[in-house]
Design a protein that fits this description.
With about 260 residues, the protein is mainly alpha-helical. It is built from 11 helices and 2 strands. A hairpin with a 6-residue loop joins strand 1 and strand 2. The model has no long low-confidence stretch (mean pLDDT about 90).
């Protein structure tokens, strides 16, 4: 049976999804600190937006399965605080890692702007846009044979600048950080509870599920392919902040709420 806060959160996410459009995501999704589109309000609003049906479905299933038991144990106020704490913590870690990664990319962009050469362009494509190599192969060959061609230089600069703008202006959306926090808390409080997986349909203890999720997200965050559009460090942030808060609450003799 759904508990009050879980029911309300699912309803808000579903309603937001119904009215979500690309302009809404662009305005209220979480942007990089380096983007002109960043607004502090996005720390909150991004948690109620989703990129597609599969995205919202998987998140709401996680909240539906793991959330009610936590809310019954903690109470509604404490559970809501925990959910928002994990979501905001996930956003902070994501933006911190994003700032570090984008600062390194910006250094490459500035370096290329100062000295646009075929070798430097190939190096940028290889490190930051490898998926586009096939469509750029002909251009790179022509540019290599004519390194002083100003038209090629302008086209390469246009590509590099466009790639940079797409990277910093791509918003992150979803409740995944908060949901992964909920999963982590469930695993910490009910480690030996057996859960039936869908694929494959076998029972597994909650603590092992959490361990698997955590290991997978760390690996994916460190070694993800450029085609991977998942904000793995937001997931890690949600789990990390959940671990900290659950352990902190566990060390207290009294409930705060």
């Amino acid at each position: 049976m759904l508990t009050p806060v879980v029911r309300t959160l699912i309803l808000l996410n579903v309603l937001a999804f119904v009215f979500t459009s690309q302009p809404v995501i662009e305005q209220f999704g979480l942007h990089s600190f380096l983007s002109d589109k960043f607004q502090p309000l996005q720390f909150l609003t991004h948690m109620f937006l989703h990129a597609g049906f599969g995205h919202i479905f998987s998140n709401m299933i996680g909240l539906f399965v793991f959330g009610p038991m936590l809310e019954r144990v903690w109470g509604s106020r404490r559970f809501l605080f925990f959910y928002m704490f994990c979501g905001l913590g996930a956003a902070l870690l994501y933006l911190g890692v994003n700032y570090y990664e984008m600062s390194r990319v910006y250094a490459l962009v500035e370096e290329y702007r100062a000295n646009p050469t075929p070798d430097a362009f190939w190096g940028f494509v290889e490190s930051q846009a490898s998926a586009a190599y096939d469509q750029l192969e002909g251009f790179i060959d022509a540019y290599t044979k004519n390194p002083d061609n100003q038209s090629f230089q302008r086209q390469s600069l246009s590509f590099v600048n466009g790639r940079w703008e797409r990277l910093i202006d791509s918003p992150m959306v979803g409740a995944s950080g908060a949901i992964f926090g909920v999963i982590m808390a469930f695993g910490l409080l009910f480690p030996n509870t057996e859960l039936l997986l869908l694929f494959p349909p076998i029972p597994v203890k909650a603590k092992y599920l959490v361990l698997f999720y955590g290991a997978y997200e760390v690996y994916s965050g460190l070694y993800q392919a450029q085609s991977d559009n998942v904000a793995h460090f937001a997931h890690i942030g949600g789990m990390l902040f959940a671990f900290i808060l659950v352990k902190y609450w566990g060390s207290q003799r009294k409930m705060f709420f």
